[in-house]
Specification:
Blueprint: E1 2-4, E2 13-15, H1 41-101, H2 104-113
Antiparallel strand pairs: 1-2
């Protein structure tokens, strides 16, 4: 890089080394390419394939994890269905027991035989507080 010293009256150019200038003895064109645009096509193809494979692997891992969670939820749903069917059967058995215990013939039989109760006669029934 060429710099001009403003203090000189004759305005003669003076050379000065910049921080961005290439080192002496080095040719500016021999710097290794740093951008993807300068990579050779074979390397770009390989990088593209690797990136595609990584993306496909990430998608596959995501899909497998979602499938595993769906299978686990399916097992939970099946277990809940079995539990529900057992509860429905138990409720039906208990309801049948309630119907048996609340039948009028059974209540009359228990009242007469176990509790020694007698049916009321019309003479024993009082009306109105007399």
């Amino acid at each position: 890089m060429i710099a001009v010293d403003s203090a000189q009256d004759d305005r003669t150019p003076r050379t000065q080394q910049s921080a961005f200038a290439p080192a002496p003895g080095r040719v500016p064109g021999s710097v290794a390419p740093r951008s993807r645009a300068r990579l050779d096509p074979q390397t770009r193809n390989r990088l593209g394939i690797i990136a595609s494979l990584l993306f496909c692997a990430a998608v596959a891992i995501f899909l497998v994890s979602r499938y595993a969670s769906l299978v686990a939820e399916n097992y939970n749903i099946q277990a809940l269905k079995v539990s529900l069917s057992h509860q429905v059967a138990r409720n039906a058995a208990l309801q049948s027991t309630v119907y048996d215990l609340s039948s009028p013939t059974r209540i009359l039989h228990v009242a007469e035989s176990v509790l020694k109760m007698q049916p009321a006669t019309p003479v024993q029934v009082r009306t109105g507080g007399q």
